[in-house]
Amino acid sequence: MENAPTQDAPRQPGAPTSLHRFANPGRFLRLTDNWLPWLAGAALLVLGSGVVWALLLAPPDWQQGETVRIMFVHVPMAWLAMGGYLGLAILSVMSLIWRHPLADLTARELAPVGAAVTALCLITGSLWGRPMWGTYWVWDARLTSVLVLFFLWLGHVALVRAFDDPERGARMGAILALVGVVNLPIVKFSVDWWNTLHQPASVTRLDAPAMHVDILYPLLWCTLGFSLAFAAVVLAATRAAVMERRVRALQMAAARRADAAPATLRGARA
Amino acid sequence: MTRKRRRLYILMLCAIGLGSATALTLTAFQDNLVFFRSPSDIVAETPPQGRAFRLGGLVEAGSVVRDATYDGRPAITFRVTDGAHAIPVVFNGVLPDLFREGQGVVTQGVMGTDGTFRAREVLARHDETYMPPEVADALKRAGHWQPEAGAPPPPNQWNTLRGNNAPAPTPARTGS
């Protein structure tokens, strides 16, 4: 892998492609080998302090009381669900246009994490809604569009794994992910375009954040922590997938050699 | 044209097509996607008798009367307003924690013949403001905000305010 050619080396049809295909993943493995411990350490540190800050030190809300603390998980999960999907879309563009195998693998490993994060967003929101709104669920535009986002994530997980040929599965998943991108602005602006039960944005708006700094800062800190953890999990999963694929390629090569050897022996005997 | 360039153009064409199709669909659905209707909507276009719909707005200040029916169930009457019009609502049931005068609510039910909305369900609507109790108290003490009367002042007046200090809306003080 050390002297493997770079990513855009032209691929002759019929030529052995495995070295070209794994050229970039090799560099990815080396780089992430250095980054991942730092990333995971930073995530643990920020999340650990964020939990103390958000759950113990931050003040309650004047009318929600302690229930406001659900937001310190709910809002980062919602942002990650959308930001992660944007990442999936970018990976899909790279996959469809440049046929980048590492983009395929990352998208494949990103989707289950994104689905989990979106599920957590829906669950925490539902638990907050029961005491505050008076209901676990309503079919308003925001809640429904986030549910659609969750199904898009799940659909990507299933579709990518539904084909025997992983390349074909990756392409189908990329198309699904790109079609689903239209849902992202709908999620974001649903609370502005239509009247919904869900409140409008408190932080990401043109005016000053409608959130007191004593609540805003721990929220941003928790968001940083969850984002680092999200990146660490996706990177670790992608590393595992790259190595898995490499092991499979080596096994295939060994099997081909084993197949070829007896044939030559037979040929010699005949 | 290389194959990569061609794939890029095809992808961009698809994106434009899909994007405009979605935009057209959403514009067409504009009126059907509302979760609730405001009192002004109801006054402008009364829904047919007996048809359930959602009515949303603010609970008018001073309009909440908590009573009980003869069989002991709670009977709450209040008025839902959007500033221009107000519609009286009656509800027999348990109100959510956030229900108060000045709070946004979404009620589901049918319009009675007497012009009173009979709610089967009352949901409280939280607005986008988050503030510690001390800050809310400070704003109320200083007379900058009466929660019953409506929305809080612009956030840049209070989102760095220290609750235990004498309220000084602008310039906001940070730290202590």
Descriptive overview:
The complex is a heterodimer of chains A (about 270) and B (about 180). Chain A is built from seven helices and no strands. Chain A is mostly helical and about 270 residues long. The N terminus of chain A is likely disordered. The radius of gyration of chain B is 23 Å and the shape is flat. Chain B starts with a helix and ends in a 35-residue tail after the last helix. The C terminus of chain B is likely disordered. Classes of the chains: A mainly alpha (about 270), B alpha+beta (about 180). Chains A and B meet through helix 2 and helix 7 of A and helix 1, strand 6 and helix 3 of B.
Secondary structure layout plus pairing:
The complex is a heterodimer of chains A (270) and B (176).
Chain A (H helix, E strand, L loop, with lengths): L17 H40 L13 H28 L2 H32 L8 H20 L5 H15 L2 H11 L19 H57 L1
Helix pairs in contact in A: 1-7, 2-3, 2-5, 2-7, 3-4, 3-5, 3-7, 4-5, 4-6
Chain B lengths: L2 H27 L9 H6 L8 E7 L5 E4 L5 E8 L4 E6 L12 E8 L5 E9 L7 H9 L35
How do you describe this structure in short?
Chain A is mainly α and 270 residues long. Helix content of chain A is 75%, strand content 0%.
